[in-house]
Design goal:
115 residues, alpha+beta, Alpha-Beta Plaits, four-stranded antiparallel beta sheet, two-stranded antiparallel ribbon
């Protein structure tokens, strides 16, 4: 699956907006997507480093119009925690050489709030 197929849309509510300060972003995702696929998609689409992914299935509501009643479909929600303080990582490679990871990550998702 492509990253655009996995991440359907952001969820902007009062509760999800409070989580942005802590680096937690909420998305509606494909129902068959795994946590690893969700993390890879967010990293590819937004250029951030994902620390953790929490997922849940949201049950559809019962709706009624006049005498007819029905049910909205179930959907999957993912709360993605990103690294808000990305720093250079250093480690010792073969021969005791110090190696730095130069991959640059952003510290927030600018597109989330329509900025």
């Amino acid at each position: 699956m492509l990253p655009e197929d996995i991440i359907i849309k952001p969820i902007v509510t009062e509760k999800s907006s409070d989580g942005i300060q802590a680096g937690k972003y909420t998305f509606k995702v494909a129902k068959n997507a795994t946590k690893i696929q969700i993390a890879d998609s967010v990293e590819a689409l937004f250029g951030v480093k994902v620390l953790s992914v929490n997922t849940m299935i949201v049950k559809g509501k019962e709706k009624r119009v006049g005498a007819n009643s029905g049910k909205r479909s179930d959907w999957k929600k993912a709360i993605v925690t990103i690294d808000t303080n990305p720093t250079e990582k250093k480690y010792l490679a073969k021969g005791a050489k110090e190696v730095k990871i130069d991959k640059k990550y952003k510290d927030s998702i600018d597109e989330f709030m329509g900025a």
